[in-house]
């Protein structure tokens, strides 16, 4: 029995794991590029009044079922890697934006005032004081986004993006419990490894 699982893993699992990691990695990377500057801007005093409204919008977007998000992007982007990544980015944005805002807003004002008294520019304060202090909280947001994306990426197979969802849905269609179980275990393994890796990184940064 174990040999059957090993054969499926060698023939399909390795390739699909790589596809899954590519989906997750690319989506989270793009989400960081969008969410980090967005969170920084929304934490600034001149726009704080509007940040809650925007966070509410992102909450609604993330609250949508993954199938609904895929259905929304499908008419515009078709099937394949791009629409899948677009849907995954939407899911990954909120935790990073929310934690970036929280991390920056929780910095003691005395530190900011002291830096201003030393003649530091707003950019220097952000780069040398605020971001380093907020980094553990931001990393926690990226951790949440990455773990959520691993699970959501399974559904992206429905639009031809591949990944471990292909093994799981093929198993469902063929009533093959081996593929369903192996695909689910591999996805869970990836999620656990990513979660633990970010947890260790967060501890080192504190």
Question: What would you note in describing this structure?
Answer:
With 206 residues, the chain is mainly alpha-helical. The protein has one domain: MetI-like fold (Orthogonal Bundle). The protein has eight helices and no strands. It has helices at residues 2-42, 48-63, 66-77, 81-105, 109-117, 122-152, 164-174, 177-205. The longest helix has 41 residues, at 2-42. The radius of gyration is 20 Å and the shape is elongated. The termini are far apart. It is a multi-pass membrane protein. This is Binding-protein-dependent transport systems inner membrane component.
Give a topology summary.
Elements: H1 2-42, H2 48-63, H3 66-77, H4 81-105, H5 109-117, H6 122-152, H7 164-174, H8 177-205
Subcellular location: Cell membrane; Membrane
Main location: membrane
Keywords: Membrane, Transmembrane, Transmembrane helix, Transport
Please sum up the structure shown:
The chain has 206 residues and is mainly alpha-helical. The protein contains 8 helices and no strands. The radius of gyration is 20 Å and the shape is elongated.
Give the proportion of residues in helices: over 70%
Q: CATH superfamily, called what? A: MetI-like
State the CATH topology: MetI-like fold
Shape: elongated
Give the tags.
0% strand; elongated; 206 residues; MetI-like fold; mainly alpha; transport; 8 helices
């Amino acid at each position: 029995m174990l040999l059957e699982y090993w054969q499926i893993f060698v023939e399909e699992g390795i390739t699909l794991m790589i596809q899954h990691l590519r989906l997750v990695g690319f989506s989270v990377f793009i989400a960081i590029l969008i969410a980090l500057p967005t969170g920084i801007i929304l934490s600034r005093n001149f726009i704080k009044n509007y940040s809650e409204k925007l966070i509410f919008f992102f909450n609604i977007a993330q609250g949508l079922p993954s199938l609904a998000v895929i259905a929304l992007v499908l008419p515009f982007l078709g099937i394949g890697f791009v629409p899948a990544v677009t849907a995954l980015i939407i899911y990954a944005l909120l935790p990073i934006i929310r934690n970036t805002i929280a991390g920056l807003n929780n910095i003691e004002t005395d530190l900011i005032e002291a830096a201003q008294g030393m003649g530091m520019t707003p950019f220097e304060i952000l780069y040398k004081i605020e971001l380093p202090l907020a980094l553990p909280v931001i990393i926690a947001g990226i951790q949440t986004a990455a773990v959520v994306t691993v699970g959501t990426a399974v559904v992206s197979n429905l639009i031809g993006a591949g990944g471990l969802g292909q093994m799981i849905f093929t198993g469902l269609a063929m009533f093959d419990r081996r593929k369903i179980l192996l695909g689910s275990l591999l996805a869970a393994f990836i999620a656990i490894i990513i979660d633990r890796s970010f947890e260790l990184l967060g501890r080192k940064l504190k």
